[in-house]
């Protein structure tokens, strides 16, 4: 399937690329955003991706835009820990899986064509097969409920536990089929959709990566630097929205009539543009239906210090470490 960089025009408008500036494209993927930034101005782009398969495309860009593009194979949550990166003018995150990852059945992200039950973006660590065959029923239920927003989470977990007691579940097709048979079709979407989403988020630790990525961006953005995030489902969007709101409203409390109630909070580390949530245009929706749930949010870094990290924005769910699995 053709690769469309989602909401590219809107991302460029939010970024407003300028010569001499440095940007982090934290989710390089097929390089659609990076290439558009490099074309739009004589800027420098540092691409990050935890999928080693993007290397080939990165080599092409490095050759075509000599000296202005580099790729670092690392999760974006660590962008503030790299010696080679100092302060930057923008951080752009396009959260989720790429069309290349989705379309390749060997990667195990999709059940449209059966493949190994893998789903690991970094191609290392535990896989979805490990999660499905080794996690307790109640933990599976919880991740399906929280990460998949699946109403029939308990039933889905029970079906899996029953099936795996007969034989290990090893393919996307096998898992999708047992869920389809056991849950039945109720709406337009395939009954396995939400369970697959939940497993993918769990295995790639996506929500914590997103939260740590936002904190890391806060640490390395220059005053005036832009944070631009494109998300694809409500769990991610809610996290980005709350993060930006918390950090832009920090000191704005109290009342003009009861000034004694004013609470001293940290100074806002971001300025939020209240109308900053943007959705894809009708034209884009017609050309690329996969963009239908995309949302873009942006905020501008202030000159105030970064907040102290607290994990209150993360849902309470089992994490990989609970099983002794490193991310
Ligand atoms: C939706 S695609 C990005 C597409 C890209 N904007 C383009 O125009 O081609 C998301 C990419 O981000 C990568 N990714 C997801 N989570 C990541 C993380 N925590 N750290 C680094 N890369 C990540 C995935 O491997 C995937 O290649």
Low-confidence stretches: none
Total number of strands: 7
Distance between the termini: 29 Å
CATH-defined fold name of the largest domain: Rossmann fold
Number of helices: 12
Bin the helical content: 25-40%
- The overall number of domains is 2
Cα-atom Rg, whole angstroms? 21 Å
Overall mean pLDDT score? 92
Model description:
- The protein has two domains: 8-98 and 206-301, Vaccinia Virus protein VP39 (Rossmann fold); 123-203, DNA polymerase, domain 1 (Orthogonal Bundle).
- Helices cover 38% and strands 13% of the residues.
- The chain has twelve helices and seven strands.
- The chain has helices at 8-15, 32-40, 55-64, 99-103, 128-134, 137-148, 153-166, 172-183, 193-203, 206-220, 234-249, 282-287; strands at residues 22-25, 44-48, 69-72, 88-94, 221-231, 270-272, 295-301.
- A seven-stranded mixed beta sheet has the order 3-2-1-4-5-7-6, sandwiched between helices.
- Helix 6 (137-148) crosses helix 7 and helix 10 (206-220) runs parallel beside helix 11 (234-249).
- The protein is globular, with a radius of gyration of 21 Å.
- 40% of the residues are buried.
- The site of S-adenosylmethionine (SAM) has 20 residues, from helix 2.
């Amino acid at each position: 399937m053709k690769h469309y960089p989602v909401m590219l025009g809107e991302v460029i408008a939010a970024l407003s690329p300028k010569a001499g500036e440095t940007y982090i494209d934290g989710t390089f993927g097929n390089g659609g955003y990076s290439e558009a930034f490099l074309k739009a101005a004589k800027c420098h782009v540092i691409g990050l991706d935890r999928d080693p398969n993007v290397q080939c495309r990165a080599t092409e860009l490095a050759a075509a835009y000599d000296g202005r593009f580099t790729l670092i194979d690392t999760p974006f949550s660590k962008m503030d820990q790299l010696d080679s990166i100092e302060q930057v003018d923008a951080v752009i995150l396009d959260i989720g899986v790429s069309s290349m990852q989705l379309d390749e059945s060997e990667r195990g992200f999709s059940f449209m064509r059966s493949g190994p039950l893998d789903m690991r973006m970094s191609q290392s660590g535990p896989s979805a097969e490990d999660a499905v065959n080794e996690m307790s029923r109640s933990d599976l239920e919880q991740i399906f409920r929280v990460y998949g927003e699946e109403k029939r989470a308990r039933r889905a977990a029970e079906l899996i536990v029953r099936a795996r007691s007969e034989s290990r579940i090893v393919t996307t097709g096998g898992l999708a089929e047992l869920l389809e048979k056991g849950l039945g079709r109720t709406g337009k979407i395939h009954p396995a959709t939400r369970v697959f989403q939940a497993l993918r988020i769990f295995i790639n630790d996506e929500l914590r990566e997103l939260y740590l990525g936002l904190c890391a961006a806060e640490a390395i953005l220059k005053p005036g630097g832009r944070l631009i995030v494109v998300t694809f489902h409500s769990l991610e969007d809610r996290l980005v929205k709350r993060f930006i709101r918390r950090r832009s409203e920090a000191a704005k409390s109290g009342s003009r009539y009861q000034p004694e109630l004013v609470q001293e909070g940290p100074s806002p580390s971001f300025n939020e543009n209240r109308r900053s949530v943007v959705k894809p245009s009708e034209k884009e929706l017609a050309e690329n239906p996969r963009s239908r749930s995309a949302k873009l949010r942006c905020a501008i870094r202030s000159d105030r210090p970064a907040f102290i990290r607290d994990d209150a924005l993360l849902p309470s769910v089992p994490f990989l470490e609970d099983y002794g699995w490193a991310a």
